[in-house]
């Protein structure tokens, strides 16, 4: 039977919207008003994805590797929302689901086909919860997630480098933006639990290189594509921006901090363009369906 792919753009954009919660506090009080808009938009997109899952529930287990590797973006977005609203038990449940899904993914999907950049999400994406674990005083869990995410990053990066030619051929251009996110998430956790600044410096240097490579791809991604295609850009760019901004503060580097602020503004611009365009396209689609009826 032919494999079915769900529309994961809704989850990717919802993750980008919820990921922006953490960078708004660096933009002053006026930016806080955006939280309600971001939260409402993210919940709407996750609701639309839930409807699509219900309609295609019989095909989920037969989904392609790309869909299976992107599915944890829903867990990450919901975890961001629950942590932001201080719903501790819901957050813990979502972290547990993500961990178990990572075990399933490692056993049944990873290393079985062409290497995909989205393989980072099930194994390294869980590092998005490290700051929340620290905030909720669950430091043992936070340290575990740091080690788990770091091990996953090294394993997947090794495979991507080993099969670099196949990796470039098998990954759609917009998904390459995911390269920004995994190391950036690990760096944010590392600044909480690691006292070795050398590791942070090396991580930031590699993160800056991957982020630069993604921004160089921006014109090719944005020109001639629909807003939903931009969804993979939203969370990775905001995660990288926050890591570089915090890294500049952590290391006392005013230049890196200034670069981080520039990235914050740019990533918010990409997020608003993608979110606005996607919501408009959803409304137009709804109007067309009502017109047909």
From TrEMBL:
Keywords recorded for this protein, A-Z: Membrane, Transmembrane, Transmembrane helix
Transmembrane segments: 7-24, 36-55, 91-109, 140-161, 173-193, 199-218, 230-252, 258-283
Source organism: Propionigenium maris DSM 9537
Keyword Chaperone: no
Protein name per Swiss-Prot or TrEMBL: Uncharacterized protein
Taxonomic superkingdom: Bacteria
Keyword Transmembrane attributed: yes
